[in-house]
Amino acid sequence: MWSPIFATVFATASAAATLDWAAAYTKANASLAKLSQNDKINIVTGVGWNKGPCVGNTAAASSIGYPQLCLQDGPLGVRYASGVNAFVPGIQAASTWDRALIRERGQFIAEETKGCGVHVLLGPVAGPLGKNPTGGRNWEGFGADPYLQGIAMAETIEGMQSVGVQANAKHYILNEQELNRETMSSNVDDRTIHELYLWPFADAVHANVASVMCSYNKINGTWACENPYVLDTLLKKELGFQGYVMTDWNAQHSTAESATSGLDMTMPGSDFNGGSIFWGSKLSQAVSSGQVSQSRLDDMVRRILASFYLLGQDSGYPTINLQANVQGTHKTNIRATARDGIVLLKNEDNILPLKKPIKLGLVGSAAVVNPQGMNSCTDQGCNTGALGMGWGSGTASYAYFSAPADAIKTRAQADGTQISLSSSDSTSSVGSAVNGADAAIVFITSDSGEGYITVEDNVGDRNNLDPWHNGNELVKAVAAANENVIVVVHSVGPVILETILAQPSVKAIVWAGLPSQENGNALVDILYGDTSPSGKLPYTIAKSANDYGTGVVRGNDDFKEGLFVDYRRFDQQGIEPRYEFGYGLSYTNFTYSSIFVDGRPTSGPATGDIISGGRADLWETVLRVTVTITNTGTAKGAEVAQLYVSYPESAATPPKQLRGFDKLVLEPGASDNVAFDIKRRDLSIWDTAKQNWVVPAGTFNISVGASSRDIRQTGTLEVP
Fold it and tell me: Residues 311-350: pLDDT tens digits?
């Protein structure tokens, strides 16, 4: 029975709804008719590396008032700009599980982008998904689950594009490691690509993303940027993508093949030495000789122009100025995402929050800002001093840097607390800093980034999952000298914590992630209880690196793990994680009650027309699950309630999969309801024989809880 809640069709006040592709295409067609062939070639071809003000540029077309298009990194802010903020990386935003904060982050990044006159910002990131815990660029995306990635992609894109900036969903697709990324083939089966890796890109397309970036790697033997199945069949036909596809920088390998396969723009138009120019005059010749049809070239141009008009960039857009001061008051979002992305892993004896201690000892090089300067390493390509982000093209310069020791000292001064500091990772200088302290806080890190930079012998991907700089030994030394040790971890991804947890003096572990320039301020907010921690892990922390069952490979990757990545594998194999996906403690307690499952979805294939994001009926809400959450503790706090679906056995799916989450702020003693709206796609599997999404018949189990393993309420759904 359909209840009244369905009458509203769960309309969301999304920015995406206000974007009109049809009107944009009408404008694009009118402009197309006025363009010379040379103009058309220029619109699809970058001017070449280092030949314009931005990392990617195309020439202006004066006949239609089309500007020199500026494309610029990156996913957390404007790279190579001097008056911008460095926002938190995607992985930190994901750790908040807070849709409003994630959307605001996208909006604020785009406000700075637009202020610099940048038309296309190269982000957000849904690839890598993060199947390899050591993968170098996992931190740029939103965690090792396609649903979480997808929601974060849509919120970010809608936030960005509400300002009038073109978003770019990248890296499409299956670029899961840095090693050999420009030569390897990712070989994956049809079902796995749909249910895991394509999933968040469908959310991006449904959010009307203007552009998609194809990746460096091959897919099933064919380069991503000239792969007709990936670019045309999956993206443009199956997902109904109306925007344009650009290459990753120098990821093009052909003239005609890339054009006929669905590539729309080449970036930056050459290799990094000015060679390897595949389009430009070569594309012009290919069209003249009939290797590439005129209609295909027109389609490329039409798509690029439509995206430009879709975002209203033809009216009053600022001129390019990467020196513009555009920071505004955006640091409020940086602090909030840095703070609310902190995950409290352990808090024995309620050692946290700190209560005006008499003396605190601080230990570790990551307690202080890089002594050479916060932006002294090109593209953040070092792990010296406090860590705020990984390294590579997905970075931006810090506007300022709040280091942990500085922020703690400021608070200590107000509290009358004595601070002693050993800002080195040497175990020999630990004693003097922590002897006699009420508590010792030790800072450890793990870093990674893009493969063109090597940091401490890590060539992009991490060599292992151990803390850097002898972190385990540093913690052991501190734990031997003080019996109240708080370990703060700043990391790009999972770290094996077994050595640290084996020290009886380690009372708390604060997983502070990648907090960018608000590192210290955000940490103090949590350490002192100004805010109760509410972050949850966007990946699994294992007891052993081998438990993940995936890793960076030499040569091609055959994706033999299939659907069983991160918690899906741990659940399937019955492996006990150290800290599971979705886990995070609070300074208060929450109880769950009164689950109610409302809706009567039916089995069978999706039948809707293709819209942006795929078949229309996949995006319809078919189920609403409600749960009551009560704050039974003594502190105000926020809880991230998570909904997992277990499919009928016949579906051969992982034991449970995230299909909903919501974050609720509650005062002590207060209760509220969480409503999860479940779409048809959330109950569907990819049927390789039917080549369609199908809801299987049978019993679905619905689990709602505080993590993927802390299930508090369960319900069932019979699908006829």
Answer: 999 999 999 999 999 999 999 999 999 999 999 999 999 9
Distance CA 516, CA 525 (A): 15
As annotated, the active-site residues are 248
DSSP conformational letter for 46:
-
User: Dihedrals φ, ψ of 136, to 5°?
Assistant: -65, -30
Which stretches does DSSP call E strand in 527-612? 590-598, 604-605, 610-611
Q: Which residues contact 19 (CB under 8 A, 6 or more apart)?
A: 161, 208, 310, 311
DSSP assignment string, 58-126: E--BGGGTB--EEEE--TTS-TT-SS---PPPHHHHHHHT-HHHHHHHHHHHHHHHHHTT-SEE---B-
Q: Regarding beta strands 359-363 and 439-446, do their DSSP bridges make them parallel or antiparallel, or are they unpaired?
A: parallel
Token pair, residue 324, equals 């513009």
Sheet order of strands, 56-58 included: 56-58, 69-72, 120-121, 166-172, 211-214, 244-247
Question: CA-CA distance, 242 to 676, in Å (whole number)?
Answer: 29
Q: Which two structure tokens, joined as six digits, stand for 545?
A: 């690196």
pLDDT digit string, tens, across residues 441-497: 999 999 999 999 999 999 999 999 999 999 999 999 999 999 999 999 999 999 999
The owner of tokens 């552009």 is 211
Reported as type and span, the H/E element at residue 202 is helix 199-206
Rounded Cα distance between 95 and 339, Å, is 10
Is there a contact between 701 and 644 (Cβ–Cβ < 8 Å)?
Answer: no
- Do residues 465 and 495 make contact, with C-beta atoms less than 8 angstroms apart? yes
Whether the Cβ atoms of residue 456 and residue 365 lie closer than 8 Å to each other: no
